Amino acid sequence: MRMLRIALRSLKARRVSLLGAFLALALGVAMTAVMLLGLASAAGAPGGEDLVSLVAALGTAGGVSAFVSAFVVASTYSYAVAQRRRELGLLRLAGATRAQVRRTVLAEALLLGTAASATGCLLGRLGAPAFVGRLADLGMAPPGFALAPAGWPLPTAFATGLLVALAGVAVAARRAGRAGPLDALRAADLDTGVLTAGRLLTGLGLLLTAAVLAGSALATDPADLLHRKTYTTQPMWLICAAGLLSPLLAPPLVRLLGRALPVRFTGYAGRLVPAGAAAALRRTGAVAAPVLVAVALTGSLAGAPATASAARTAEARARTTADLVVLPAPGSDGPLVSVLRAVPGVAALLPTAPTALGLVEPDGVTVRSEARATADPAALATLTRLPLLAGSTAGLDDHSLVLPAGWGHRTVGEPVPVVRADGSRTTLRVAAVLRDGLGDNGLYVTAAHAPGARVDRIEVRLGPAARVAEVRAAALPYGATVLTREEWLAAGAPARITWLRMALVLGLALVYTGIALANTLLMATADRRRELALLRLAGATRGQVVRLVTAESVLVTAVGAVLGCAVAAVQLGSLYAALAVLRVPAPLVLPWRPVAAVSAGALLLAALCAAPAAAWALRSRPVTAVAR
Predict the structure, then answer these.
(1) Which of 289, 439, 522, 555 has the fewest CB atoms within 10 Å, i.e. the most exposed one?
(2) How many C-beta neighbours within 10 Å does residue 189 have?
(3) CA 58 to CA 62: how far, in whole Å?
(4) pLDDT band at residue 157, thresholds of 50, 70 and 90?
(5) If 0-12 CB within 10 Å is exposed, 13-18 middle and 19+ buried, where does residue 127 land?
């Protein structure tokens, strides 16, 4: 009970320094509550493809918010405990045991987490109706989608907030328990023993885990690395590893980036800035952590969808030789095909229809998949360049099928039991085996195995004398849309809705990492009153000290941005490795603009927060500040 009273008084005394952790956790819980309320509403709505996509986006956003909250709270509390080494040493000197000190820090986290979680749940409940209504307005949810009453989301969000707070502070509490009585007499601000053996081994273990996950996926299922679930969670291992290994990675980066400082503007600070950042590794790590997570998530979550989209577009471009793609209106496909065949200069025509086909596994389980059916197998071989591993598409007939190697049937002529869309069963032989890809490298059958399927795409190759205008004129009476190959490929690029989902995942995460960065900078600068006063007594002017603190804050923020870029580069590198294994001719797509925008915003925020904080810390006379 005595330690609980101490925890309450400590929170009251340090309420300003812990404001960032409180806000980050409250916003994280609010976002989690909103996402859970949206998920509960979607679960009670009629099913559909748009709802499935919405549920995936809401779940991803909730997971990212919980991760960022835990990361930010852990880094903030770790630095807060490091700042309190003299206070914790006094507790030990007064007779407190290591366990009592640990319980005090955990009690503070529990009280902070309770208050922040309650605030977050209140904010989430108030904001959920407007958020859900906005989803329908933006087209991310079906029309009429509204918030439905549910009892479990708010308690779940509250419990998640408490768990995040306690998990984020657990390591800091353990470090606090190691404080010794002599720490109360410590006067030097040089950080020692930051990179402990446990921290080093844990960081290396997380790096190894990320490498094993990526390596196993490349060896077994490379396409899995391009799925949203994978490229959203994979960077988290690397982010945690970079955060733990920051005491090892930061000093060389500080020295390297310190050479780029404009010495003519900072004077002697050109030497003091890198030295100060390298000496205070806990402060450097605490400031760099929010920047690391913001830049890494931005690079990974903005670059991965763009990479996957570019790969699918490149694969589709390499797969077809058509000059035009005609999209028939419903019910007009039959006469339209005949009319297009009669257009002068049309060299080849490939009408295909979507259908469902089930493949019966050896254990009797039927696995359904989308397939395409054509009434002209010869045109399939003429107008497509499918990635063949065995056989030939020219061998496709009413008694065979073309399928990817991922289905496990790799021998030409092998019998495959299938179930048609109408439920009828038959056995087809393998005419050709395709290399697994990302786009439409799927199943192909003839129209005889697609009962009721209507042609939805007609690929057209033009001869030398053909004119696109004649094809458009022929298709116009039937309400068909005629697209060039590039227009058709562009239509398959990520729609606006994809970027809205990405903004949903990243938006609030970036907001509260910004809040955490501002709070950490203010807290760190306020803790340096004595150091800054000594600089004044050594002859530095007030302006020189402010510029020094600002330059150091910008330098440390740049270190976090570089680490974040490195994490994003490794993550995107694994995607390109997967594309190389899949032999997809993907162009290099790097999210320069969002990464540059987030990095520049962090640097600007660092300067705007550090300069006023340094000026505020220098408001007292240097002699008075040193005497405290």
Answers:
(1) 439
(2) 13
(3) 6
(4) confident
(5) middle
The answer to whether 295 and 598 are in contact (CB under 8 A) is yes
pTM more than 0.85: no
Is residue 436 within 8 A of residue 463, CB to CB? The reply is: no
State yes or no: pLDDT of 563 exceeds 90. Answer: yes
From residue 353, alpha-carbon distances to 7, 447, 456, 612 in Å are 68, 8, 6, 66
Interval 70-82: pLDDT, tens? 777 777 777 767 6
pLDDT grade for 562, boundaries at 50, 70 and 90? very high
Q: In the prediction, which pLDDT does 590 show?
A: 83
Residue 311's Cβ-count burial label (10 Å; 0-12, 13-18, 19+) is: buried
State residue 588's pLDDT score: 75
C-beta contacts of 62-66 below 8 A and 24+ residues apart: 62/31, 62/32, 62/35, 62/36, 63/232, 63/233, 64/232, 64/297, 64/301, 64/505, 64/506, 64/509, 65/27, 65/28, 65/31, 65/32, 65/35, 65/508, 65/509, 66/28, 66/32, 66/160, 66/164
Higher-pLDDT residue of 426, 268 = 426
Q: How far apart are CA 403 and CA 455, in angstroms?
A: 20
Residue 451 makes CB contacts below 8 A (sequence gap 6+) with 420, 421, 422, 424
Residue 221 tokens, joined: 């299922």
Is 611 in contact with 546 (CB distance < 8 Å)?
A: yes
Q: How many CB atoms are located within 10 Å of the residue 609 CB?
A: 21
pLDDT of residue 524: 76
Mean pLDDT, residues 234-249: 88
Q: Are 153 and 62 in contact (CB under 8 A)?
A: no
Contact 89, 296 (CB under 8 A): no
Which residue, among 122, 161, 125, has the nearest Cα to 25 in the 3D structure?
161
Candidate ranges 51-60, 256-265, 354-363; pick with highest mean pLDDT = 354-363
From residue 31, alpha-carbon distances to 43, 492, 507 in Å are 18, 31, 10
Q: Give the whole-angstrom CA distance, residue 240 versus residue 248.
A: 14
Report d(CA 260, CA 448) in Å as an integer: 69
- Residues 6 or more apart whose Cβ sits within 8 Å of residue 434: 386, 387, 388, 389, 402, 403, 404, 405, 441
Q: How far is CA 36 from CA 60, 117, 391, 525, in A?
A: 11, 14, 50, 38
184 or 434, higher pLDDT: 434
The rounded radius of gyration (Å) of the Cα atoms in the chain is 31
Average pLDDT over residues 341-352: 86
Amino acid residing at 121: C
* Strand-strand pairing, 400-404 and 425-434: parallel
Residue with tokens 């407007």: 130
Query: Distance between CA 303 and CA 492 in Å, rounded?
Result: 17
The secondary element (H helix, E strand) that includes residue 359 is strand 346-360
Domain boundaries of the chain, sorted by first residue:
1-186, 200-209+233-319+492-628, 329-479
The pLDDT of residue 122 is above 80 = yes
Q: What is the DSSP letter of 320?
A: B
Return the minimum-mean-pLDDT range out of 47-61, 149-163, 194-208. Answer: 47-61
Asked if 56 contacts 146 with a C-beta cutoff of 8 angstroms, the reply is no
